[in-house]
Amino acid sequence: MKISLPVLTRRAALRLGMAGTTGLLAAPAVLAQGSRSRNEPPTVLQIVDTAIEQQDVAKDFFIGSLAAWQDFSKQDILRGRTVVHRKLEIDSTAKDWSAGLAELRDNPSIVAVSGSVSEGAARQLAQHLAAAKLPLAHVAPWLHDIDKADERTFPIFANRQMQIRHALRSLSMVGVREIGAVYATSRDRNLYKASVANAAAALKLQVVGFEGADDPRDLGRQMSARSPVVMLFLGGTPELARFTQGLADQSRQRYVVALAEVNLQILRQMGAVPTIPVIGAQVVPLTRSQMPVVQAYRGTLARLFDEPTSSLSLAGYLGARYTQQVLAAMTGPIDRPSVLSAFQQRQAIDLGGFRVAYDAQGLGSTYVTQSMLTVEGREVG
After folding, report:
1. Looking at the whole model, is its pTM more than 0.85?
2. Does residue 81 surpass a pLDDT of 90?
3. CA 55, CA 33: separation in Å to the nearest integer?
């Protein structure tokens, strides 16, 4: 007997597991919670960050993943075999990851981790898996701070260096020769300063750095008449909203360029000043693209959730689709060694127009595009 999966609203989906540690999506099965049996079917686990400052990223990304897995469960793509998708929540700011790592180490039914999000959670998980030498595929993480992938990490989105290069190249092509680099926190400065300097030097752009304020709004207020018109912002969505509030005190019009961590769709809700144009680098196509995979994403999201499209949920959808396509191509058993081996082949895959093709560094995509949040609050690109 096949049990139909319920159609969920976003709020219902997020309630499942967001207050606890597990949320289960099986195929075919029903959504459930509770302790896990070691006799369960092969499981693809998704790490979702519960840190408050990351929820604007993690929730949207997870919704896209969930839509793809729920749609997948209704099709016999695995030719009679069953794969379970389950969420494990971890706070990326917590010092103790022992419970989550024990689950990965001791539950052999977990054959892969797919779509770990946020950036902080994905980075820490990659480090933990490497340190433990755990032979577990870490697929399609929301991980941008990476220059070379190890034998168990399979990133499918352009890394931060590629995003910065794309953003700065676009600026240089329209005649901008000087930019401001705004580091929201000391951590952002440590992570991004070298990458910004290298990319700017390659394009012969001058960079003026702004950092050190406890509140990003104060960074915006530091601007003077001689400060650059275009500012590259390195930080998250809440910090960018505060920064634009500081810029609003300036008489000179400025433009802000942000990277993929910023959620343009909710930037205004977090208090961003509408009169400050924001340009966002995106590592996925625009959500209104006619690319077949994007059309499939829009249709699935509209059918299963009462939620508008966003670049982050599209990223989650693409990560799940890539994972599913590799699993579907397997002909033998679906277990840890065979799944890791399948991903280690790093075969080029076309996901309906979004191409994953690994380079010598193990990075799966160089795709970066840009969209702009206008003063009217519309996203154009």
Report:
1. yes
2. no
3. 21
